[in-house]
């Protein structure tokens, strides 16, 4: 019984220390879907909300094409109202996909140009999975960016299908900073 109590207590404390970005219930984010068409590419993007077996989630799907210097589709949201005195270690997501590699892109207040971001990749299996991506695993897109992500500086976060020709389909049921 004591073990169950401590397990419950540690799980409860773990969730208290997280900053929920979107859980499709009481906390919602405003998401925008974007493709490389903003820069002349031809990738096609669809983004919508689905409910399946009583569970709500977002779905990003489309065809990623590298023609015309393109090669991405994504959905992203602004991060606002994070506590200035709280540091987080990474991004936690409940996701499902089509057994392809995807990326999380983070932009901070120090990044002004659209091609600047921090990226970390992950595999999206065809089963619901919780993925934790520590900020230390994010790589900067340009040499002149600050070398690491500081959670208080995050302005946007996006889920991205990028870099190669493929049919993308990824589902997101929740996302938070942990």
Task: Pick out its properties.
mainly beta; 178 residues; globular; six-stranded antiparallel sheet
Your description of this structure?
The protein has 178 residues and is mainly beta. The protein is 8% helix and 49% strand. It contains 1 helix and 12 strands, in the order αββββββββββββ. Strands 1, 3, 4, 6, 9 and 12 form a 6-stranded antiparallel β-sheet that branches. It has a 6-stranded antiparallel β-sheet with strand order 2-5-11-7-8-10, with no helix packed on it. The two termini are 28 Å apart.
Q: How would a textbook summarize the main sheet?
A: 6 strands, antiparallel
The CA-CA distance between the termini, in Å, is: 28 Å
Average pLDDT level: 91
Low-pLDDT runs of 5+ residues are 3-15
Write the layout of secondary structure elements.
Layout: H1 2-16, E1 19-22, E2 31-35, E3 44-52, E4 55-64, E5 72-78, E6 90-97, E7 100-108, E8 118-124, E9 129-134, E10 139-140, E11 154-162, E12 166-177
Antiparallel strand pairs: 1-12, 2-5, 3-4, 4-12, 5-11, 6-9, 6-12, 7-8, 7-11, 8-10
Give a summary of the structure in a few sentences:
8% of the residues lie in helices and 49% in strands. The protein is mainly β.
């Amino acid at each position: 019984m004591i073990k169950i109590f401590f397990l419950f207590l540690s799980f409860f404390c773990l969730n208290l220390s997280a900053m929920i970005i979107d859980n499709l219930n009481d906390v919602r984010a405003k998401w925008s879907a974007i493709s490389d068409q903003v820069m002349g590419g031809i990738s096609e993007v669809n983004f919508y909300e689905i409910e399946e077996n009583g569970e709500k989630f977002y779905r990003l799907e489309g065809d990623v094409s590298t023609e015309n210097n393109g090669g991405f589709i994504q959905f992203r949201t602004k991060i606002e109202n994070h506590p200035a005195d709280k540091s987080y270690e990474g991004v936690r997501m409940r996701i499902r996909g089509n057994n392809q590699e995807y990326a999380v892109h983070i932009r901070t207040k120090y990044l002004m140009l659209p091609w600047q971001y921090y990226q970390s990749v992950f595999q999206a299996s065809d089963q619901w999975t919780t993925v934790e991506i520590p900020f230390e695993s994010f790589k900067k897109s340009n040499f002149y960016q600050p070398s690491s992500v500081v959670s208080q500086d995050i302005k946007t976060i996006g889920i991205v299908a990028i870099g190669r020709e493929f049919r993308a389909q990824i589902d997101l049921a929740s996302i938070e900073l942990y």
